[in-house]
Write a structure and sequence with these properties.
The protein is mostly beta strands and 238 residues long. The chain has two helices and 21 strands. It is globular.
Length: 238
């Protein structure tokens, strides 16, 4: 007869230890259903979390911490989205306004936009669709941006990468992309910049004051497989 097998005390100890050190797989990420507030979810989220947005939402949203916002099921935001923190990512979302700037950065803000449709369908002439004023920079990948009354992209700070994107304005007097003093570098790869009928596809204006010891800071532009249209093409006003 076989002797009855008794569990080893050491095996039991090992199981206890494993149960203490294996972390829970539960996630703190948040889903915002239709009708709920995206801003409330952003306010309550911890840095580094992902917020999944479902359905249509009408509100202005300010992101002040490093978060990832992902739209699903044709999610949309009617209102503005502003990043004042670096490292913010927004994916697969439709953003639109009828007046102000739909997407912008400020302060130390930076944004990575991927697979977005951004539209501005009214409001004052000259108001940009996407405004990069934050020091964290901008990356636009697979973005379609259309402004009916102003430039599609206006940059006054940091570095910006535009790849596989279409940025257009339908206002005759507006440039597709404006770079002003403070912007450091623009790289456009495999993208289209479509300016107004009497404007430029890309305009660079460096009006930073110069002194005898400090000339204006340089703005670097790199175009790779880019199409730039508009009656004035590319304008360099330094």
């Amino acid at each position: 007869m076989f002797a009855a097998m008794r569990p080893s005390p050491r095996a039991g100890l090992l199981l206890v230890v494993l149960s203490l050190v294996i972390p829970s797989s539960a996630s703190a990420d948040t889903t915002v259903p239709p009708g709920a507030s995206v801003q409330t979810a952003v306010t309550n989220a911890g840095a580094g979390e992902t917020i999944t947005i479902q359905g249509a939402h009408t509100e202005d949203v300010t992101v002040d911490k490093q978060l990832t916002l992902v739209g699903v099921d044709n999610a949309s935001l009617t209102g503005s989205l502003t990043s004042s923190a670096a490292g913010v990512v927004v994916k697969t979302l439709s953003i639109a306004t009828t007046a102000g700037t739909p997407v912008s950065t400020s302060g130390s803000g930076g944004l990575t936009l991927a697979n977005l449709l951004v539209q501005r369908t009214g409001g004052s002439a000259g108001t940009p669709l996407i405004a990069g004023g934050g020091s964290g920079g901008l990356t636009l990948t697979d973005v379609i941006g259309i402004n009916t009354a102003g430039p599609a992209l206006s940059l006054t700070s940091a570095e910006t990468l535009v790849q596989r994107a279409t940025l257009a304005t339908t206002e005759a007097a507006s440039d597709a992309v404006d770079l002003a003093a403070g912007a450091a570098k623009l790289t456009v790869d495999s993208s289209m910049l479509i300016g107004g009928g009497s404007a430029a596809g890309l305009k660079v204006t460096n009006t930073a004051p110069a002194t005898a010891l400090a000339p204006p800071a340089a703005i670097t532009v790199a175009l790779r497989h880019a199409t730039v249209t508009g009656s004035k093409g590319i304008v360099l006003d330094a």
